[in-house]
Amino acid sequence: MKKKKSLIQAVPFMLPSMLGMVIFSFLPIVISIVISLTDWNGLDKLNGETLGNSMVGLENYVRILQSEEFWAVLWHTVYYIILYIPLVLVMSLLVASILNRTMRGITVFRVLYYIPVLTSWVAASLIWKWVLSPQYGVINQLLGYIGITGPDWLTDKVWAMPAVVLASVWKDMGFYGLFLLSGLKAIDVGYYEASRVDGAGRVRQFFSITLPLLTPSLFFCVIMALINAFQLFPQIQIMTEGGPNGATQVMVERIYTYGFKYFKMGYAAAYSWILFVIIFVLTLIQMKLQKRWVHYES
Amino acid sequence: MNHSKWKKTAGAAGSYLTAVLIGVVVIIPFLWMLSTSLKSKGALMQIPVQWIPEEPTLNSYRTVFSRFPLLKAIGNSFFITVSYTVITILSSSMAAFAITKIRFPFAEGVFKLYLASMMIPTQVTLIPLFVIMNRLGLIDTYPSVILPSVFRAFAVFMLVQQMRSIPDDFMEAARMDGAGILRIYGQIIMPLTGSAVATLTVTTFMESWNDYLWPLLMLSDKNKMTLTLALNSLNGQYGTEYNLLMAGSLISMIPIIVIYACAQKYFKAGLMSGGVKG
Fold this sequence. Notes:
CATH architecture of the largest domain in chain B: Orthogonal Bundle
Strand content of chain A: under 5%
CATH superfamily of the largest domain in chain B: MetI-like
Order of helices and strands of chain B: HHHHHHHHHHHHHHH
CATH architecture of chain A: Orthogonal Bundle
CATH class of the largest domain in chain B: Mainly Alpha
Distance between the termini of chain B: 47 Å
Helix content of chain B: over 70%
Number of helices of chain B: 15
Distance between the termini of chain A: 42 Å
Oligomer: heterodimer
């Protein structure tokens, strides 16, 4: 009896959210799987008949995995990761250790470093497109002062991805920096005092105390950055649109292009499931590490 | 000055220097944006570059408002973001309340469904959601962008964690006083969840305000666009007139920075709660 009453009480509270779950999550997941098995063009009315007629089985998946483009796209993401992760980690470590010092006026810097995080990627991409302008941009102007002719950045096959990385590091370092800051704050000051008595210098302290005790937070940052790297989109779409010559094509950009420019919905849906598998594996790793991470703190 | 004192001063100076250097890297693109937005079309492409515009003008701001219904876009952004945030908070807190405090049969199982759905990246549901919105005839309407807020697994997850820490004694006491379930939710549990709700509010607001891909797919009518879409569309139309684009970018940043200034503490808490990133 009590069970029944609690169920009746719960229904109105659960209804909006659960209805949303069915319409905006479960149903789409099922539809997405079905579409990924068809070559539906996105324009024909979607019903049992058109789906049945356009059924192609696993062909989309096979074609994606066999295409040269997919591996190129994957490589672009890996290339992004190789450049982005070391750079963003070093910069956020710097940000975190600066903000961890008790200095007058440090709040000003904390706010300043966080502004790029607050900025939308659309605005940030436009700003960076202009900063990276070969002729009129800040970067090439500054390089010019020291006698270096800067590259054409976003329109240069070699430099387009590094340019996207620069913009992304600039935008994200405040985020990871503040995340690492809380990791730093959790380190017991006693360690530093003890090591100072033993005569350890600043650099020594950083490598034998700070870095080891910060590894859990650093791991977490790396996994977060990896997952985000596979979901790269707005900066690519606005700064390069995957160009020049496909040099910055990445997975979400491909899903968008195939789905909503070429209307190859089946192909795009299959692409999105391949993306899911990659992110799923990364998430599993994250959860494993997170358990260790939480355990570490307690 | 003795040796250790000198060393301390040098250390502090070094820290300041590094802080300022990073600050310069962060701020240069913004200053460049500001400087560009105050230039005329001609001054934009002058070599040598004018770091500080020789004849600063507010023309770009005027032009950008006259060529695009930017005021409307600001209004749309506020309307969509506020609705999105309010619905997220209401719907998610109601679900979290039922899961943690009413404890109906299968509550744990239902919660696991929420956790599982957090595994699905939004890109997977992009195409089918487009199909569903199309079927419902909602494309190019505000609800197409607002409605998905009714189901936010992460928000439910966060609030469940928070509400679990509230002892049941509070509820029992209220029930003794004859409070109904609605009053317990609204006047007992919600106030006690205040800081988590505040954190969720600012992060949801920021996410919705800066959202790009989903509104891009849904809204194509100039008069319905959000600020980010307006900027995107300005970029498509006047891709070389950077004075206009920079003026637009600057305008788009103001609201979120004002909100950040007012609610810093909750942004920080949001950052720690599990990687909601702009």
